[in-house]
Sequence to fold (167 residues):
Amino acid sequence: MPIYRLDAAQRLSTDLGSAWEFFSDPRNLAVITPPEMRFRITGEPPAAIRPGLIITYRLTPLPILPLRVSWATEIAQVEAPYYFADDQVAGPYALWHHEHRFAEVEGGVLASDLVHWSLPLDPISSPVAGLAVMPQLRHIFRFRARKLEELFGNPAEEGPSLRIRPL
Fold:
């Protein structure tokens, strides 16, 4: 089963506490998800994450297909206000592990993401990774970067970084 790695990072014009408050509130996932994905939390999550919290939602992962899927993630680790990680416990991936990191930098906060993911049904699904999943993940994280820049600003001249590659 091929495993892929996504790295994304961007500077935000905010303080560490405000960044943590935004990202650790599960309700803000809908704010930073492209609207065509029709993201909706199906339970009533608390205003802040904690280890062991399960978040369930429904979304359209590939808007070109009229397919809605259920997804559940568990908050695996929390080191407030610097780090948290979530793992898919039910959903479309064979593996989804997402690490979120926050660090104070000159003029703001560096928000970075590391995602390890793989698709089920390998080798049948391998072509889908390059043809559909990687482009959709790029779209999602670019949308997210634009939305975060709208909300917090960007203290640096360089834009956000994004890289997806097989391991």
User: Anything to note?
Assistant: The longest strand covers residues 69-79. The chain has a mean pLDDT of 94. The radius of gyration is 16 Å. DSSP finds two helices and eight strands in the chain.
